[in-house]
Design brief:
The complex is a heterodimer of chains A (122) and B (107).
Chain A (H helix, E strand, L loop, with lengths): L2 E5 L2 E3 L5 E8 L8 E6 L5 E7 L6 E3 L7 E6 L4 E6 L8 E8 L9 E4 L3 E5 L2
Parallel strand pairs in A: 2-11
Antiparallel strand pairs in A: 1-3, 3-8, 4-5, 4-9, 5-6, 7-8, 9-10, 9-11
Chain B lengths: L3 E4 L2 E4 L5 E7 L7 E6 L6 E5 L3 E2 L7 E6 L2 E6 L9 E6 L6 E2 L3 E5 L1
Parallel strand pairs in B: 2-11
Antiparallel strand pairs in B: 1-3, 3-8, 4-5, 4-9, 5-6, 7-8, 9-10, 9-11
The chains are: A mainly beta (122), B mainly beta (107).
Chain lengths: 122, 107
């Protein structure tokens, strides 16, 4: 079974930092472009960031550009999201998701983790 | 940014009825549109990709259609487990975007 597992969420004060991680089982994460999607409590889905297979190209929503950094370590088959200068409106469940197609980008997402909750509050 | 508008926001139907959900894009996304189902406390699940292709394991009662700016997700006969929130997502251009969702609730 293909699975993703996020970790690293928690409670952080406004202006603080947090690093999320995502690990895969049942498939080789390093063969797929990967994405982070978030969902504020009671709200819809918001695409946050994506990274190509090689890691050479990254993409961000305007709401997080300059504050968040997506990265991957293909030798360890892991994905990360470094979140700095956190704000109250960053409070959300953060999901990592796998691109449907091998070696692609700009795709749909066929495998999702269960999410890790980030709460930004003083 | 391509804005996806889903309608209606809420659809109240009974099991066995047909559900028709709409997603309209602010500019053409060709056939690069997907549909997801999300139940409370769960991650989204991919149902349809590239407007009309069912993801593996998705029942045949789910079908997608459309291209350009107007798309439809149809559930031919609602099963009890189909009551959930449905989102569309475009991959025509960066940034990727999702629609606001349609809540299919039991009437």
């Amino acid at each position: 079974e293909l699975q993703l597992l996020e970790s690293g969420g928690g409670l952080v004060q406004p202006g603080g930092s947090l690093r999320l991680s995502c690990a895969a089982s049942g498939f080789t994460l390093s063969s797929y472009a990967m994405t982070w999607v978030r969902q504020a409590p009671g709200k819809g889905l918001e695409w946050v960031s994506a990274i190509t297979v090689s890691g050479d190209d990254t993409y961000y929503a305007d709401s997080v550009k300059g504050r968040f950094t997506i990265s991957r370590d293909n030798s360890k088959d892991t994905l990360s999201l470094q979140m700095n200068s956190l704000r109250a409106d960053d409070t959300a469940m953060y999901y990592c998701a796998k691109d449907l197609r091998l070696l692609g980008t700009l795709d749909s997402f066929d495998v999702w983790g269960q999410g890790t909750m980030v709460t930004v509050s003083s | 940014e391509i804005v996806l508008t889903q309608s209606p926001a809420t659809l109240s139907l009974s099991p066995g009825e047909r559900a028709t959900l709409s997603c309209r894009a602010s500019q053409s996304v060709s056939s690069y549109l997907a549909w997801y189902q999300q139940k409370p406390g769960q991650a989204p699940r991919l149902l349809i990709y590239d407007a009309s292709k069912r993801a593996p394991g998705i029942p045949a009662r789910f079908s997608g259609s459309g291209s350009g700016t107007d798309f439809t997700l149809t559930i031919s006969s609602l099963e009890p487990e189909d009551f959930a929130v449905y989102y569309c997502q475009q991959r025509g251009n960066w940034p990727l975007t999702f629609g606001g969702g349609t809540n299919v609730e039991i009437k």
